[in-house]
């Protein structure tokens, strides 16, 4: 089956990762790109071998694309997704789905009513490392899960030091950028939902306009598991990692909170240490969902959960109190 994709947004992430990921799917074609600037649309299309360059949403949605990938700045996702859904196009939207959980829920509701596939690009779910961790936990290899630590504080590359650190109205800040990923990855790996969060945020010298560039969150899950996550833009040498500790074993993953298919996962139990092996997936599940086979690896509901969780973390940092994450507001359990 051929799937013709339209890119909404001439973005870095599409250029670096998603265009290739689409093209490696059988039948995956990039048919068009939309940028708000006609010149950038044309140069981006030329540089990336895309046949059609447009500068309005109507032109993109009026073309014969089957699906759109939205990777504009965050404040534009809602309106663009609703328009695409209305035009009958399937939607893979970048995280955060919108600026608020309430807006993200509108997207989910509209997609459901229209019979449209809506996915959230929480790519970490596709990483073999996180799948291997999830499978080990589900198979009981660490016994009863007790706690997790997520190390996801990085140095924001200079070419990305734009709206993320200067424009609150565009949905900047490390919580909407990275905490959403951590909330989603924890949900995915445990198969459990966070019900409460307590967070501190900071402005450590990079972000302006009142935006945060560092956050530490403590999460409580439905099962009783507690987790901590550290997100940042300003730490050059921290490295990333993810640890899950259970009654009978621990999973120690290094370099896995990244867009690249790298990293290692060690399982440590009374039997000793074992390096887990894993492979990599990409947009395979989204294409399968378009054929009516299953769902995207992260659905719209998953995007609502991660955004509602991040929103609660921001509220906690502001109020100095822990904040409940309402599962009814956050989507399905
Ligand atoms: P970019 O800053 O590269 O792109 C965002 C928008 O900025 C583009 O849509 C484009 O507008 C405009 N833009 C890009 N380059 C230029 C330029 N040289 N001059 C002027 N304007 C420019 O953002 P990212 O690719 O980093 O992020 C886009 C989205 O993807 C965000 O929602 C982000 O959260 C998400 N993201 C997700 C990741 C993940 O891990 N899943 C990783 C990285 C980003 P126009 O289209 O109008 O030309």
Unreliable stretches: none
Please summarize the sheet with the most strands.
Answer: 9 strands, mixed
Strand-residue fraction?
25-35%
What's the CATH C level of the largest domain? Alpha Beta
> Architecture of the largest domain, according to CATH?
2-Layer Sandwich
In short:
The chain has eleven helices and 15 strands.
Tell me about this structure.
The protein has two domains: 3-123, NAD(P)-binding Rossmann-like Domain (Rossmann fold); 124-280 and 299-332, Dihydrodipicolinate Reductase, domain 2. The protein is 35% helix and 25% strand. It is built from eleven helices and 15 strands. The chain has helices spanning 12-23, 38-47, 57-62, 77-86, 101-114, 128-138, 163-166, 174-190, 284-290, 300-319, 327-330; strands at 3-8, 28-34, 52-54, 67-70, 90-93, 118-120, 145-153, 194-202, 214-221, 226-232, 241-246, 249-254, 264-269, 272-275, 323-324. Helix 4 (77-86) runs parallel beside helix 5, helix 5 packs antiparallel against helix 10 and helix 8 (174-190) packs across helix 10. The radius of gyration is 19 Å and the shape is globular. The chain starts with a strand and ends with a helix. The model has no long low-confidence stretch (mean pLDDT 95). Bound molecules: NADPH dihydro-nicotinamide-adenine-dinucleotide phosphate. NADPH dihydro-nicotinamide-adenine-dinucleotide phosphate binds next to helix 1.
Labels describing this entry:
single chain, 333 residues, alpha/beta, Rossmann fold, Dihydrodipicolinate Reductase, domain 2, six-stranded parallel sheet, 11 helices, 15 strands, 25% strand, binds NADPH dihydro-nicotinamide-adenine-dinucleotide phosphate
């Amino acid at each position: 089956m051929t799937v013709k994709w339209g890119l909404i947004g001439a973005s870095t992430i599409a250029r670096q990762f998603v265009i290739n990921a689409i093209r490696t799917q059988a039948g995956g074609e990039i048919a068009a790109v939309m940028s708000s600037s006609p010149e950038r649309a044309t140069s981006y299309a030329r540089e990336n071998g895309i046949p059609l360059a447009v500068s309005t949403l109507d032109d993109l949605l009026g073309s014969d694309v089957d699906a759109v990938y939205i990777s504009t700045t965050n404040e534009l996702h809602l309106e663009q997704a609703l328009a695409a859904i209305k035009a009958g196009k399937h939607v893979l939207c970048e995280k955060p789905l919108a600026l608020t959980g309430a807006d993200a829920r509108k997207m989910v509701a509209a997609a459901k009513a229209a019979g449209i596939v809506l996915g959230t690009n929480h790519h970490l779910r596709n990483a073999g490392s996180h799948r291997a961790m999830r499978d080990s936990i589900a198979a009981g290899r660490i016994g009863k899960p007790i706690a997790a630590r997520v190390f996801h504080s990085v140095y924001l590359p200079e070419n990305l030091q734009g709206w993320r650190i200067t424009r609150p109205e565009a949905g900047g800040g490390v919580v909407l950028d990275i905490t959403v990923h951590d909330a989603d990855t924890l949900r995915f790996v445990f198969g459990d939902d966070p019900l409460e969060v307590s967070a501190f945020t900071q402005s450590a010298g990079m972000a302006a306009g009142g935006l945060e560039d560092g956050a530490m969150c403590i999460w409580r899950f439905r099962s009783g598991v507690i987790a901590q996550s550290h997100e940042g833009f300003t730490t050059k040498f921290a490295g990333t990692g993810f640890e899950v500790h259970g009654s009978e074993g621990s999973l120690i993953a290094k370099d896995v909170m990244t867009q690249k298919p790298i990293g290692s996962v060690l399982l440590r139990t009374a039997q000793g240490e074992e390096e887990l092996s894993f492979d990599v997936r990409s947009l395979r599940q989204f294409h399968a969902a378009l054929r009516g086979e299953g769902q995207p690896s992260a659905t719209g509901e998953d995007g609502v959960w991660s955004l509602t969780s991040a929103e609660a973390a921001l509220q906690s940092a502001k109020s100095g109190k822990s904040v409940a994450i309402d599962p009814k507001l956050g989507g399905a359990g």
